[in-house]
Write a structure and sequence with these properties.
Helix content: 25-40%
Oligomer: single chain
Distance between the termini: 55 Å
Strand content: 15-25%
Number of helices: 11
Structural class: alpha/beta
Number of strands: 13
């Protein structure tokens, strides 16, 4: 099968993985379109094919209400510019089936191009599904195979696994609460509990490989974590530090904020760095630009 020469990525984690695979080989020019939330430096000049129906600058509670209402009514949270997609004529489109809140799903993509005569019938649509660290590595291998670079993908996957295994966990097993949202509170799911365990912590809410979940402060308070980490999905360090400062006055232990986009929110290779940053902050060591102790 001929390797695809025109690739569209409709989710940030896939964009990150694609540039991890393609850049060292000088093939990054194969990526011809991205989503509105793809913030990789090499993607800044590329056409944007999606938009969210939710205002990302709104307060968290308002975003939660809008998302919950859309999900309840069966409305897609993202819209795809089908006509632009048709003009770009990709031979590979990458989407995801992990979380309808996070990025475009195959169903949304199908709706966007249903009545267009052009590219998608001839394009390969790859849906990434990773909900764990192993799942992320499987996605990397699948993406490498789809781009005609299986050997490159295998070498990279083995190096990432070695980096993961080399993380030195803290010895004192602190109790850790991860907050993927703060108003209302959601605890971290998918690979985040794995990151906590790899760093040497005991995860007080959330199960590896399962979805994040809604909680209440009344449920959280009796857990009395030693460390609480604010890693709100879709936000960097500055915003998460602001969210952390607004947490209620509860027994949450040390409170830290992190760059969730780079290290925790996305099923990409940054989760390995995230586990290392988590191990460092459990030792009381901040990583400038990536973590900050708030209280």
């Amino acid at each position: 099968m001929t390797a695809p020469q025109r690739i569209v990525s409709l989710l940030p984690s896939a964009t990150d993985l694609l540039f991890d695979l393609l850049t060292d080989l000088g093939l990054e020019g194969r990526v011809v379109g991205v989503s509105h939330s793809c913030d990789h430096p090499r993607a800044r000049h590329l056409p944007v094919l999606t938009r969210s129906i939710v205002d990302s600058g709104a307060p968290q509670a308002e975003i939660d209400r809008a998302v919950s209402e859309a999900v309840r009514e069966g409305r897609a949270l993202y819209q795809v510019d089908g006509e632009l997609l048709d003009r770009l004529k990709p031979d590979l489109v990458v989407t995801q089936g992990v979380c309808e809140v996070c990025a475009v799903t195959p169903g949304t993509l199908e709706d966007a191009v249903r009545y267009l005569p052009g590219c998608l019938p001839a394009a390969n649509v790859l849906s990434l599904e990773g909900k764990s660290v192993q799942g992320i590595l499987d996605d990397l291998r699948a993406l490498a195979a789809a781009t005609g670079l299986p050997e490159t993908g295998e070498v990279l996957a083995r190096q990432v696994r070695a980096d993961w295994d080399a993380i030195r966990p803290v010895p004192h097993a602190p109790r850790v609460l991860t907050l993927e949202w703060t108003d209302p509170p959601f605890y971290g799911g998918h690979w985040v509990p794995e990151q906590v365990v790899r760093a040497g912590g005991v995860n007080v809410l959330g199960t590896p490989g399962t979805d994040s979940g809604r909680a209440t402060w009344e449920q959280i308070a009796p857990l009395r974590p030693d460390v609480s980490v604010v890693l709100c999905c879709g936000y960097g360090l500055r915003d998460n530090a602001a969210f952390a400062r607004d947490l209620p006055d509860l027994p949450l232990g040390e409170v830290w904020a992190v760059d969730a986009n780079a290290l925790f929110s996305r099923p990409a290779l940054g989760v390995v760095r995230g586990a290392q940053v988590l191990a460092d902050l459990l030792r009381g060591q901040a990583a400038p630009g990536f973590s900050e102790r708030i209280r």
